[in-house]
Write a structure and sequence with these properties.
By secondary structure, this protein is an all-alpha fold. 63% of the residues lie in helices and 0% in strands. It has a domain at 17-99. It has helices at residues 2-11, 17-30, 43-62, 69-99.
């Protein structure tokens, strides 16, 4: 499934509403928001995978000979933007699902006179 997603993501020539909706649906599926088709993957694992995939693509582009530096620079910027947009779309789905859960926050006591506790 990942290879199908990457193929569509990397070969898409026009980022129209239909394509952005597709990315949103994939994010919903992983954030356990699409009902029976949900697979519920923790966001930390999705984010690590995105970072690893971006690293692989940037490294491959950087080390490819025969591409002018100007073009290589533009390609690396494009890959970076692609992963930022993808991450934003996915994180919106996870934020929306976490807003439906209640969390308890414990307050900690801070010593206002010292930035670094020396215990």
């Amino acid at each position: 499934m990942l290879s199908m997603y990457l193929k569509r993501l990397l070969t898409q020539t026009e980022w129209n509403d239909a394509f952005l909706q597709y990315m949103t649906q994939v994010g919903q599926m992983h954030a356990n928001k699409s009902g029976a088709g949900s697979i519920n993957v923790d966001y930390i694992h999705i984010n690590v995978l995105f970072g690893f995939m971006e690293h692989l693509l940037v490294d491959k582009l950087w080390n490819t000979n025969g591409i002018e530096d100007k073009n290589k620079h533009g390609m690396i910027i494009a890959v970076n933007k692609l992963f930022w947009i993808q991450n934003d779309i996915f994180s919106m789905q996870y934020r929306a699902s976490s807003n439906n859960k209640s969390f308890s926050v414990q307050s900690t006591k801070v010593n206002p006179t010292c930035c670094f506790p020396l215990h």
